[in-house]
Design a protein that fits this description.
Belongs to the acyl-CoA dehydrogenase family. This is Dehydrogenase. GO terms for molecular function: flavin adenine dinucleotide binding; oxidoreductase activity, acting on the CH-CH group of donors. Keywords: FAD, Flavoprotein, Oxidoreductase. By secondary structure, the chain is an alpha+beta fold. It has three domains: 103 residues, Butyryl-Coa Dehydrogenase, subunit A, domain 1; 108 residues, Butyryl-CoA Dehydrogenase, subunit A, domain 2 (Beta Barrel), CATH 2.40.110; 130 residues, Up-down Bundle (Butyryl-CoA Dehydrogenase, subunit A, domain 3). Helices cover 41% and strands 13% of the residues. Strands 1-4-5-8 form a four-stranded mixed β-sheet. Strands 2-3-7-6 form a four-stranded antiparallel β-sheet, with no helix packed on it. β6 and β7 form a beta hairpin. α1 runs parallel beside α3 and α6 crosses α8. It is globular and about 70 Å long.
Length: 422
Amino acid sequence: MSTSVEPEQRSLQDEAPEESSFREKLRAWLAEQHLPVLSGSDGAGRTAEEYDEESVRAARDFQRRLAEAGFAALTWPVEYGGQGLSSRYELIFQQEVAGYELPTTLLGVGFGMCGPTVLRHGTDEQRARYIPPLVKGEEIWCQLFSEPGAGSDLASVRSRAVRVDGGWRVNGQKVWTSGGRHSQFGLALLRCDPAAPKHAGLMVAIVDMADKGVEVRPLRQMTGHAKFDEVFLDDVFLPDERLVGEPGEGWTVARTTLLNERVSVAGNTALRGGSVSMLVAAARSAGREQEPRLRGRLADAWIDELVLSLLRERTKRAIEAGRTPGPEGAVGKLAASRYIQSASRTGVLIHGEDATTWDADEEGADEWALRLCAAPGLAIGGGTDEIVKNIIGERVLGLPREPRVAPTEPGVNGRAPAKGEK
């Protein structure tokens, strides 16, 4: 497997000499790390596999080396282990690593969602305690938001935090937690006031995954792997110093996490582009590149990939201008979802029977089956396609809000539980 990427003529608009120098240093450092090179794959298949102890060690080790070399958390404050650089350096970093298969997927939730949330809404003590170990790869984070009855309508979470002496007692269940088994901490969205309107009765807190009462169970997917977990919280005690923001401000805090998540999903998919070239090469290898139906599918994939690239360029320019991610990030997330699903189906169409039957002893032979089974997950994780369309319509295009039916469950619609209800 190749471990070097041919240098490309990449640069930011009006790239300064110090930025170009940073790029060259980073490029040279990456070449020394002997990382596997992406061979036109968008990563939708192999990353569908569950994390094992070896992949956890690899993620920690590479993140430690990144931090030691001064390439970790580029835009985060120096006092918390970051480099204190502008967002333009982060864009340079993303451009340079795009050709490599980094072993740090497991750390994505911490860096893309939880870390930015703690930096923005956490106390100085929380930033000092939790951010430096994250930067150095010493601690892994997960997101404890979705529940069996609150996924798309996240503000309807029912995991309950009850005030007790010195903190909060938490009971509830979370689901679809990426990397929960391997995480030291989780950022949880909890209901602290069942009598308040559902968006107003929430809080966000940090859960130590080793605390008494925290139980993590793997969820087996149709890929055969268990990349996600469900997490049960049974009388878990959270001291006051674990709250991120104030009780009742949970939705504001959670929105920071969600906005970063959608931009992260779209950006990572665009950066792992190359599926079209991979599909074209596969079609030629199979002698099918002239088939009209397949040519149409390949053209659609090319258009989708171009759209993603342009959306990412728009996000890049916004970041360069100092603007933070907003609801427009949902457009990229929706485009990424459609792109991955379409590319996976086209790949299966090209490979035919070989995509669904394979030699179990041949490494990587199941890749297209994994891609096909994993691709629909992108239409759910980070906000379902339907919810994302609502966000685009209402908050980007300014269309009227979609009619909403008020929930009837106590504690999530602004009424207190009646006598005898829990």
